[in-house]
Amino acid sequence: MAGAADKLMAGAADTVTAGAADTVMAGAADTVMAGAADTLMAAAADSRSLPIFARVSARRTLCYDILHPNYGPHVRAGSGLAWVDAELAIVQDDALCIAWLKPDSGALRLSALPPALADSLGAHTFDAAAGNKLRKPDFEAAFSWAIDGKTELVALGSGSSTQRFHIIRVQNAGATCSVLDGSRWLTALSENQAFAGSQLNIEGASCNDQQLFLFQRGNGAAVNGLAPVNAVAAFAVEEVRRFLDAPATAAVPNIARLYPVELAGFWHGGKSIPWGFADACEHQARTWFLLSAEASPDVLDDGEVAAAALGYLTDSGAVFGLIHDENGQILRDKLEGLASDGRGGFYAVTDNDDPTIPAQLLHLELGHV
After folding, report:
1. Which positions ≥6 away from 216 have C-beta within 8 Å?
2. What is the CB neighbour count within 10 angstroms for residue 356?
3. Is 331 helix (H, G, I), strand (E, B) or coil?
4. Domain annotation for the chain: domains and CATH numbers
5. Fewer Cβ within 10 Å of end Cβ, the chain: N or C?
6. What string of H, E and C letters represents the secondary structure of 262-318?
7. CA 111 to chain centre
8. Is residue 208 classed as helix, strand or coil in its secondary structure?
9. Which residues, other chains included, contact 91 with Cβ-Cβ below 8 Å and sequence gap of 6+?
10. How far apart are CA 136 and CA 118, in angstroms?
11. Rounded to whole angstroms, how far apart are CA atoms 133 and 84?
């Protein structure tokens, strides 16, 4: 995916540059100066690929039909998205439940995660106001696969702290859920400097029949001379399954291939905001990803979102373009979940970093310019 060096470049060697700072300039009006189409391209050497144009075509606020005593009236934070049969499973990084949506009808239901994941006071939601944000399991990367003819949902903690090393396996459309100790695997990933850089923060996952891809978001703080990195790690599906079947004893999955990704920043408000991975999915035989330009100081704290982008990996690089809202402006919603719509577009879910504001499901139309 990234030539002989196994690197996906987003700078002068297969990158967009905008002056000496190697940032994408947005000028006074925050308009991206990367060609007349206002798109970003991160694989200039891949002549088969064109810049991507994506826009929001519809959005739905995710409110439950009833008030749930442990979880409130709405989806709090959409951090992961995956199809499970005819429903979209919406994983939340700050609530011990999964929301299940049928996009065509809008039917939205909820299934609870095991109470063993609750904090020491029994809380099932986590936020700064409650003083327990740092104790959340932080499920960020979700994917589904078929096990014995049935679809299973898997979600991984981000690994950004030891509290976030859990993995869940959800079967029977939410009726059954097992909690696994993923510390052996996530610890190994955190110690792999080429993948984790200064701080591990797994934000996305995408799975096909042969490989599982995990997306590391490089929004950490520099630690002991190590810089944060964006990277993609590929694992053999069979190795991952064997590990999840016996996480205490099975061999830790090996990284079959590692793809470090260098992304230019997005210029906004007089400064360069770093891009970082937000989620991924399979779509029309490609691995697609979301990017967020977020001014977060480290893997534990949130920041202002300046832009969102959508792209895909190629044999020789990566291509991505800005997402625009319904009015044609640069989208500034914080998107953290991505799934194919099964046709030509995508679904994405928001995380507003405010539990009082309902998450939204966005539909993204895709085109080339």
Report:
1. 189, 195, 196, 197, 200, 201, 202, 203, 229, 230, 231, 232, 233, 277
2. 10
3. coil
4. 23-368 (2.115.10)
5. C
6. CCCEEEECCEEECEEEEEEEEECCEEEEEEEEECCCCCCCCCCEEEEEEEEECCCCE
7. 21
8. coil
9. 78, 79, 80, 81, 82, 98, 139, 140, 142, 153, 155, 337
10. 8
11. 28
Please give the order of strands across the beta sheet that includes 271-273. 23-24, 265-268, 271-273
Please report where in the chains the tokens 């895709």 appear, as a residue.
Answer: 366
> SS3 for 138?
coil
Q: Tell me how far apart the alpha carbons of residues 140 and 325 are, in angstroms, rounded to a whole number.
A: 24
Contact call for residues 159 and 167 (beta carbons, < 8 A): no
pLDDT in tens, the chain (369 residues): 433 333 333 332 233 322 222 223 332 233 332 322 223 333 322 323 346 789 999 999 999 988 898 899 999 989 999 999 999 999 998 899 999 999 999 999 999 999 888 876 688 888 878 787 778 888 999 999 999 999 999 999 999 888 899 999 999 999 999 999 999 999 999 999 999 999 999 999 999 999 999 999 987 678 888 888 889 999 999 999 999 999 999 999 999 998 767 777 888 888 888 899 999 999 999 999 999 998 766 655 667 889 999 999 877 667 889 999 999 999 999 999 999 999 999 999 999 888 899 999 999 998 754
